[in-house]
């Protein structure tokens, strides 16, 4: 009789016999969640196919683990980090010889000192060699002092200040650094990043801001949230295109349309009510309104004009009087928080149903609600609508 064909047999894996092992194996490939922005860089291996040099922060974790477990063997430390789960931070692969090297008193002391004095440098993989530690330390303290004083610091200022410290500390000429090669290393070691400064919030006394907030809280406590209002003007460039573009090659800029108008924004603290925008331009009858009365548009457009396209005492009084008449018919009293611009302060009219409360000077960036994002969102929605029409 002919021999029967042999059937191919498949070896049964352990994971097929035990579903829990299959789940454990799959869990090793699960990506971790997002890290905080200020988290230190780590070379911890989250998947088995990755291996990198350890950062100073990784070695700090190893040293801290040994300090928490006195008497632990070095091999046990190597095995622990080689099998550390993703939830605990991922695996760290290193040899017992490398561990022994980093546990030497001088290495360990330098690592702990680095963590205490300059934690930003823990993301580096190599220990930074500093030719003149005293100059480096003095320059770092100088940067922190300038930051506390709200003073700007540039690369050229760092180079000049280093020369002064080297001269003051009598550093020999052969140890003094020349050029700018050290600058990037210094900025990286001290976590220095170039930022663009915006606004004038830094020039305000924070203690005065707290006092102003307490004053406003006391005043607002007498009104219901829906009866607390804020109004503010903003400049508006309706025809100016974006200054950035997507293109296949560099593109030269063109002359920008600098046509400007002002807009008055007003809303209550709950966001349930808002008044129609008031626009102020330079021309009484712009071309866009040719043959059209803005007040008869749907919806009606509240438009006024003067030579500077800005709020004046006359326009502010007109706006307040119109709103006060409406509130009087509703038998309603409200609180209106506004800044002390000349057009507001010069008003002599005293509304019967609106309590006008002026904010302290130079504090609108902290206590003005419309400056806290309402106006920015309004302009963003306008830009989005403008982009759709292009």
TrEMBL record:
InterPro entries: CenT-Element_Derived, DDE_SF_endonuclease_dom, Homeodomain-like_sf, HTH_CenpB_DNA-bd_dom
Highest rank taxon of the organism: Eukaryota
Protein name: HTH CENPB-type domain-containing protein
GO cellular component terms, A-Z: nucleus
Keyword DNA-binding: yes
Alphabetical UniProt keywords: DNA-binding
GO molecular function per UniProt: DNA binding
Entry-linked Pfam families: DDE_1, HTH_Tnp_Tc5
Positions of the HTH CENPB-type domain: 123-196
PROSITE patterns recorded: HTH_CENPB
Organism: Mycena citricolor
Keyword DNA-binding among record annotations: yes
PANTHER family noted in UniProt: PROTEIN PDC2, TRANSPOSON
Stretches the record annotates as Disordered: 1-43
């Amino acid at each position: 009789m002919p021999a029967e064909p042999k059937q191919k047999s498949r070896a049964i894996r352990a994971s097929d016999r035990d579903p829990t092992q299959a789940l454990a194996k799959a869990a090793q490939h699960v990506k971790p969640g997002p890290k905080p922005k200020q988290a230190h860089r780590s070379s911890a291996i989250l998947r088995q196919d990755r291996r990198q040099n350890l950062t100073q922060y990784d070695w700090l974790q190893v040293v801290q683990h040994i300090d928490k477990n006195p008497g632990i063997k070095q091999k046990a430390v190597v095995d622990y980090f080689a099998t550390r789960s993703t939830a605990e931070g991922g695996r760290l692969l290193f040899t017992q010889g490398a561990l022994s090297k980093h546990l030497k008193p001088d290495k360990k002391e330098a690592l702990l000192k680095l963590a205490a004095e300059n934690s930003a440098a823990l993301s580096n993989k190599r220990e930074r060699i500093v030719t003149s530690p005293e100059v480096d330390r003095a320059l770092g303290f100088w940067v922190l002092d300038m930051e506390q004083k709200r003073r700007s610091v540039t690369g050229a200022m760092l180079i000049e200040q280093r020369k002064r410290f080297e001269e003051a500390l009598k550093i020999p000429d052969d140890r003094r650094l020349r050029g700018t090669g050290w600058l990037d290393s210094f900025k990286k070691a001290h976590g220095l990043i170039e930022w663009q400064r915006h606004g004038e919030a830094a020039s305000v006394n924070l203690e005065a801001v707290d006092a102003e907030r307490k004053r406003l809280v006391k005043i607002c406590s007498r009104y219901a949230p829906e009866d607390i209002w804020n109004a503010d003007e903003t400049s508006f460039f309706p025809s100016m295109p974006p200054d950035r573009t997507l293109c296949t090659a560099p593109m030269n800029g063109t002359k920008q349309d600098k046509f400007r108008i002002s807009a008055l924004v007003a809303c209550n603290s709950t966001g349930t009510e808002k008044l129609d925008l008031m626009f102020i331009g330079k021309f009484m009858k712009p071309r866009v309104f040719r043959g059209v009365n803005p007040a008869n548009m749907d919806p009606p457009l509240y438009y006024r004009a003067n030579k500077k396209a800005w709020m004046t005492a006359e326009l502010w009084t007109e706006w307040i009087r119109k709103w006060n008449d409406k509130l009087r018919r509703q038998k309603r009293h409200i609180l209106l928080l506004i800044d002390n611009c000349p057009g507001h302060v010069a008003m002599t009219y005293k509304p019967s149903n609106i309590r006008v409360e002026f904010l302290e000077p130079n504090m609108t960036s902290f206590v003005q609600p419309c400056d806290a994002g309402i106006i920015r969102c309004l302009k963003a929605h306008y830009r989005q609508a403008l982009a759709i029409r292009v």
